[in-house]
Amino acid sequence: MAKGLTRVPVREQDPKVRATNFDEVCLGYNKEEAMEEASRCLNCKNAKCITGCPVNINIPAFISQVKEGNIEEAYKIISESSALPAVCGRVCPQESQCEGKCIRGIKGDPVSIGKLERFVADWAKENNIKPAAPAEKNGHKVAVIGSGPAGLTCAGDLARLGYEVTIFEALHKAGGVLSYGIPEFRLPKDKVVAEEIENVKSLGVKIETNVIIGKSVTIDELLQEEGFEAVFIGSGAGLPMFMGIPGEQANGVFSANEYLTRNNLMKAYRDDYDTPIARGKKVAVVGGGNVAMDAARTALRLGAEVHIIYRRSEAELPARVEEVHHAKEEGVIFDLLTNPVEILTNENDWVTGIRCIRMELGEPDASGRRRPVEIPGSEFEIEVDTVIMSLGTSPNPLISSTTYGLDVNRRKCIIADEEFGKTSKEGVYAGGDAVTGAATVILAMGAGKAGAKGIDAYIKGKQE
Ligand SMILES: Cc1cc2nc3c(=O)[nH]c(=O)nc-3n(C[C@H](O)[C@H](O)[C@H](O)COP(=O)(O)OP(=O)(O)OC[C@H]3O[C@@H](n4cnc5c(N)ncnc54)[C@H](O)[C@@H]3O)c2cc1C
Ligand code: SF4
Hints:
- The relative contact order is 0.13.
- The protein is built from 18 helices and 18 strands.
- Strands 5-4-3-6-18 form a five-stranded parallel sheet.
- The chain has three domains: 11-126, Alpha-helical ferredoxin (Fumarate Reductase Iron-sulfur Protein, Chain B, domain 2); 141-238 and 394-463, FAD/NAD(P)-binding domain, CATH 3.50.50.60; 242-391, FAD/NAD(P)-binding domain.
- It starts with 10 loop residues before the first strand and ends with a helix.
- Strand 3 (141-145), helix 9 (149-160) and strand 4 (164-168) form a beta-alpha-beta unit.
- By secondary structure, the chain is α/β, with parallel strands linked by helices.
- The structure holds flavin-adenine dinucleotide and iron/sulfur cluster.
- The site of flavin-adenine dinucleotide has 41 residues, from helix 9, helix 14, helix 16, helix 17 and helix 18.
- Residues 41-44, 47-49, 59-60, 63, 102-104, 111, 113 line the site of iron/sulfur cluster.
């Protein structure tokens, strides 16, 4: 390809080496590489990339600064819009967002916007550059439920406007899925997640962990007794789904959430921690999304032979192309057009295998994807000792069932408007996975921003 059409390649750990460790797979750009990649940007007047970014980062402006080597300026531009650039630079599905709209992508590779964002955020951390200081406190108190990307973004934006913000988090550690779900080898916890949470705290945001809203205290109590004028709910969608097939209750069957939480949040993969984890020898992961890839690659690093079992074909895999590519490179086996019908167990109810049936693709279903149809008589068994179910999650109904007047839909997702996160209950706003069901970090951040705007307008409106 002609010069300028291909992106500067990013360095990665060798697949054989990384399959045995939990260190980060992608090593990122250095300054020279970043400046070279930035020089591919055409600094478009009508920059389509910005329209693909749910938090509207001024992409050409920050890339222009990288091109000139002014990394501190680039960081200032990004942090006007995003509280979590080192996270987003690593885990956002840029190929379907900013990079998917990049004009460079018409004839060659789109600009590596995500890798440039990551470089800038890492450089800022190494050089101890912090986000701009918040405004003077305005004396108004707001509560945020959940410390995932939606809650952190909402809290950060409100703190910048002068609000006194307290985040209530059910777990012992802040970060939501960034801390308990996405594995260390994609998103380092101490180096990246904890640092970006510290940046949000440096704006004056308080985080109270081990507080379960709906049990420790209710939303109505926060509003009526604790002096909070508004509440933002960013409680995610952490309730795992199962298939309902025989054997699913057996020992050795896990939800991907439990498996990843033990590994990430409770550090089961480290020899200096006592958290138990199933170090299976042969593991089946059922599902084809990002979470399934994370569970599979985690099991692989713990020493197992790993099979992904997915009922459609490779073209329909919902995981990011990069994640599928990495999983294959590392040695994960893909059993596609395959669906489990039973989990097999021994007399002590431990998993011994999984019975599956072959599938073929029929007519498109409501989602537009071709419907998988069973091939009669094609059942077969795979010998495994561990099964990890990764079939999606839904919001936990605890908050909706303990909050008077808060409407949810039939999937238990809180009903909130997109522009301001306004719910059916006065003073209560919501966004992120709790509203949409399982989605992405950047959409949750966009919803956090919308909620902050809504709350600011609501509190100011009350004063008029
Ligand atoms: C394994 C995995 C991998 C993923 N990979 C990617 C990826 O590569 N790229 C991407 O963009 N997205 C990815 N996602 C999805 C993404 O992480 C989520 O869409 C995003 O984190 C949602 O943000 P949130 O703030 O709405 O919720 P969460 O991140 O789920 O945070 C919600 C927080 O609220 C807390 N909470 C819940 N109930 C209560 C309560 N009653 N009281 C107090 N606190 C409460 C929870 O403990 C949690 O900390 C992945 C998800 C998983 C599970
Ligand atoms: S669309 Fe691509 S080339 Fe144009 S400004 Fe955005 S990143 Fe640069």
